[in-house]
Structures are given as structure tokens and as C-alpha cells.
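Milestone M4 deliverable, item 7.
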Amino acid sequence: MSKDKRGYGFLIKWLVILGDLIVLNVIFFAVYKWTGMDNADDFNAKLRFIILLLNFSYLFSVYFIPVNIYKPVLFTDKVAQRALSLITMHLIIFIVSLFFLKMETDALPRLIIYYYLLLFLVFTVWRVIAREALKLYRKTGRNYKRVIIVGAEKNGMNLYTELKKEVTYGYHIHGFFDDNLLLKNTLPNYIGTTAEVVDYALQNNIDEIYCTLPASEDEKIIRIFNCAEKNMIRLYIIPEFSRYLKKRLYLENIASMPVLAVRPEPLQFLLNQIVKRAFDIVFSLFFLIVFFPFLYLILGLFIKLSSPGPVIFKQVRTGIYGKDFNCYKFRSMKINADADEKQAERDDPRITKFGLFLRRFNLDELPQFFNVLRGDMSIIGPRPHMLKHTEQYSKLIDKYMVRHLVKPGISGWAQVNGYRGETRTTKQMDDRVKYDVWYLENWTFLLDLKILFVTIFNMFKGEKNAY
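Output delivered:
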């Protein structure tokens, strides 16, 4: 079978781009008619330029956030997330372009609001549908890649299992090459020795070679690599450490030397840091100026009436890179000697009746917006723990200190997934840490917004685990 008959994979990307442009323009004209902009003379005079700018903004956006739904292994949530990121980039470029080209009209702001609200929804749905359609197409036996695996030890078998999980991944695995002839009768499909790899690949139109040989067999690897390069066959090397380190890694370079980071950290990039910090400052200032004075007077009065002591409770907690900082809260407990040693428990006699109300609706955390403004915390991030807990759990949980590579937050990914309140076992803390580490590895601004909205919703609903 020739490569051209396997689904014209090179066209999929361009078909998706064409579909994107159709969606962008159809939604624009639908909103244009629905809002009655076709009767606005000042807008219609610039309509052609606005449409042209709309499409050019997409082409710039897709350059920075390329189409990736054609990739073999890609999950629906990532498709939706990337679609939202693309439209956000499009919005920024479009509005900035309008401003610099002085193309504002009285009718334009209203159209932009309706247009992008609808576009965020429709565009995301379109991209997800396109991905599902591609998966169905692959089930018919088209748009697949012919693959062989070199090396049939544990690493090779693990790779085989992963590639065979889903037909929709689009991999057709011909079989294994290995110099250990004893494996011939135990493998799903033994083809030959490593010396036969390239000849077989050329005769059978192989697209990709996956080499899982150990580093000690570097002569074989180099020979296969050079032959693959000469014959324009893509070669992928599966490192030995994949047997015990099964996670996404991030490739960097020191000069010409490739370096693998153990985890991706989106917040190491300056632009992401600026976006997150800017949002922290703007949102905190807004809350502290508009809402906090009123809340301080009302809540402070009830705190004073509930038990003697200050309104604001200050406790030293562990921050970014393990640095200590003073964390502020509305006081919810009676003054006690165990505040820095013992966490709150269910039916804890130290918690006042009003303090229980504060904790149930997350109101005790509100003074931490001052911590955010000072730079000790972020609005979203792993919750800061008492120093005693940091000392205790850092010895029991291997990845515990990894959560301190980002600023602690008023709310976090673990909290909106049910991990809030008392931690009775090491297993519970280990689960929290997994959510915290996942957050720092997968951070996006949209994820922060999602956590914020869920947190606000939970505040009104009240949380049963908060005590």
C-alpha cells in the first residue's frame, strides 16, 4: 500500500485550519445580523477591513498556537484547552490591531462581546468534533502510521502495549526486531535481528522506527540512526529510564547538549509569570478596595463577640522555595497554645461557633489577599502548610517539597477536588500533593480561572469538609 492511500495525513492540518476560518466567519456574520449591525452605517463602512483583520488575526494566532488535533495521542480536554487558548490569542491580537489601526466604531464593542462569547463555545465544540471525526476516520484503517519496534525487552513491550491501547491512535505495528532469538516465540510478532531493520523498513514503507535498545548497545543505535536518516525514516529513541519514570518530560538544551527536565513547569516562563502576577494584583486590589473593608467590619465584630482576641490571626507557614512567611486569616479559634502544632479537627473545641461558620464558607481565608498583594502568595496555588506539617510530611512523602516550586494559594487544585479540611493519614496528604504537583506541571491561566470559579461556587454552597 502506498503512503498516499493511508489517509492523506498531511492534509488534515489544513482541513482543520479551513474549518476554523469557516467557523470564525460564519459566527461573525451570524452575530452581525443578529445584533442589527447591518443597519449601522459607520460600522458597514469599515466592514471589509474588519473581516480581513479578523482572518489575519487568526493566521497570526495559529502560528503561535498551531493545530495539533491530528496527533495520534491527544485527549479531548487538551483539545478544548488549546481551542480556548487560540481564541484568547485571537481576541488579543484583534483588539490591539483595531486600536492601532484606529478602526473603532460605536457599534463595534457590543459586537465583539457577543461575537467572542459565542465563538468561545462554538469554536471549542467544533475542534472537539473535528478530533472525534478524525478518530472515527482512523477506525476505518486510514491515516495510520506504519511502525516497527527495535528492542523487545520490557521497555519495548511497554511501548507496544501503549501504542495498541486505542485503534484511534493511528498506529499499525508490524512487529519487533531483536538480536535475542530466544524471544522469537514469545513476542506478538518477531520479524528479525537489528541488522535487518532498515531493509525491512524500506521494503514495507515504514514511517517510524521506535528504538528501545539500552544505551550500552550504542553501536547498534548509531547504525540504525544513520541508516534511518539516509533513507528519510523518522526514528524515535525510548530512553531506559522510561521503565521507572513514566511521566511527561521537558526537553531543554545546554549549548548542543540535550537536557531532560523531570517535569514541565509552565510558570518558569516569564510571560506566564507576568500574566499570573498581573491577575493576582488586579483581582486582589479590586477585592481589598471594594469588599474587604465592609467584610472586615461585619466579620470582625462577630469574631470579637465570639471570643476574646485579635480579629486577624497570623501564623508562620511555608511558602515558595521553602521560605517562611506570615499567613493572615480571620481568627476562627479561641486563643490556644496548640495553634502552630495541631490542625483543626472535626468537633474541635478550640473552634468558635462563628469560626465554624467562617471555615465552612471559606471566609477565614479572605485576609490572605494581603499576602497575595505582598507577593507571598497567589490567588491560586497549593495551600500553605504549618511549619510542623512541612517538616513532618517532607520526610514521609517523596514529592512533598515539589509543591513549593510555586507560590502557595488561597485556593488550589487539590481543594476544588475535595481535599480540604483535616488530614488524618499520610495517604490523604499524599493524594493532596499529587494534585498540587499536577497543578504546577499543567498550569494555564484558564485553569486558574476554573479553580477560582469553583472556589467561589463552593463558598456560597458551603463545604462539609471545612471545619
